[in-house]
Amino acid sequence: MESLARGGTRWKRFAVVMVPSVAATAAIGVALSQGALAASFSVSGQQFKVATDRLDGTGFVQYGAIDAQKGGKQVPVAVSGFSNAKIRNLCQSVVVPVPVFGDVSMKLSAGGGDTPVEAKNLYIDLDQLSADATFNNIDIGVAAGSTTKGPGMHKGDKADPGSFAQQAESATLTHVKQQAWATTAGTFKLSGLKMSVAKGKSECY
Is 86 within 8 Å of 61 (Cβ atoms)? Predict the structure, then answer.
């Protein structure tokens, strides 16, 4: 990891991320492509993949938390939040194993044209990410419950308000590939929404 400094700090493979899962969008369908709706989703005990060419966000915060999964399993995650985010060329995928039938893949793409995907008060719980990232006016080592530059801690998160966190006024991420467990957005608008369901494994990366 490169040295940390205020201003335009560029990090590679930094655990920051952005977008809700394909299955969340599938649940509310084409309505998301026509307007801005609230979205909340998690796949109990299962990860989903997200890839995007570029995310431009303002009001960033990140802190550690524990996700409770079905059957009592607990998963440590990094929660990344953005007050506002614009996302270009988004791909989201999840593979669901179906007894007897086999794997079924759901894949979504959006924001590939002139109009990017837009999200407000976006949180995503992840445990893996690779990306190139630039953060502006970043503060490292603040208390999770006292951040001021982003949307703050998400209500209901299993996290210590006094634990380590970081925040920044804005962030740009490119060439993003990530795995996540859950996501929530106050509003989430998809432009140029395309979705497919197919037998077998068909993932974003």
Answer: no
88 and 111 in contact (C-beta within 8 Å)? yes
| HEC secondary structure over the chain | CCCCCCCCEEEECCCCCCCCCHHHHHHHCCHHHHCCEEEEEECCCCCEEEEEEEEEEEEEEEEEEEEECHHHCEEEEEEEEEEEEEEEEEEEEEEEEECCCEEEEEEEEECCCCCCEEEEEEEEEEEEEEEEEEEEEEEEEEEHHHCCCCCCCCCCCECCCCCEEEEEEEEEEEEEEEEEEEEEEEEEECCCCEEEEEECCCCCC
Burial (CB count within 10 angstroms: exposed 0-12, middle 13-18, buried 19+), residue 205: exposed
pLDDT tens for residues 57-66? 999 999 999 9
Model pTM score = 0.80
Please state, in angstroms and rounded to a whole number, the distance separating the CA atoms of residues 123 and 145.
Answer: 15
| Rounded CA separation 204/187 (Å) | 23
